[in-house]
Structure to design on (140 residues):
């Protein structure tokens, strides 16, 4: 399995509860390396663009409001099969269905306030990384 990159967001419910370090430790313990990281306040336009695939879903408006309700930490993660490794440590979208030991099971508040985002494919990882980072901001 090759070393690849994925994109992660530590969501506002986690930054609000001062869990940036706790989430990052779980990512690192899963074998991922943080090769870029910044804390930002997303604008409404940025959040709408980021979640454009969910535009037609009933929860879209609430999701955008949640994502701009406080700061987030956007990160690029590197590791063996990074997309799948990250999705595994994140756990299921709904924390009630997430496996024990996953970030969402241990830390998330609800299906919406679920503490982390992770890219769902290598193709989307590349798009999402480019949405938030310039190449020179990523240092492996
Ligand atoms: P993410 O894309 O954030 O990594 P995911 O891939 O597990 O999460 P998606 O189906 O892509 O889940 O949904 C994106 C986000 O929208 C979820 O992480 C969650 O915050 C929110 N969401 C998804 N389903 C619901 C729902 N039924 N009600 C409220 N919010 C939801
Ligand atoms: Mg998703």
């Amino acid at each position: 399995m090759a070393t690849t990159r994925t994109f992660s967001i530590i969501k506002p419910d986690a930054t609000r509860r001062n869990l940036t370090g706790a989430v990052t430790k779980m990512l690192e313990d899963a074998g991922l390396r943080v090769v870029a990281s910044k804390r930002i306040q997303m604008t409404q336009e940025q959040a709408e663009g980021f979640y454009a695939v969910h535009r037609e879903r009933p929860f879209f408006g609430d999701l955008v409001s949640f994502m701009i309700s406080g700061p987030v930490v956007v990160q690029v993660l590197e590791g063996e099969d990074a997309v799948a490794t990250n999705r595994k440590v994140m756990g299921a979208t709904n924390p009630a269905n997430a496996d024990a030991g996953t970030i969402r099971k241990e830390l998330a508040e609800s299906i919406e306030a679920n503490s982390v985002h992770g890219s769902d494919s290598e193709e989307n990882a590349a798009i999402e990384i480019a949405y938030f980072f310039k190449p020179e901001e990523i240092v492996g």
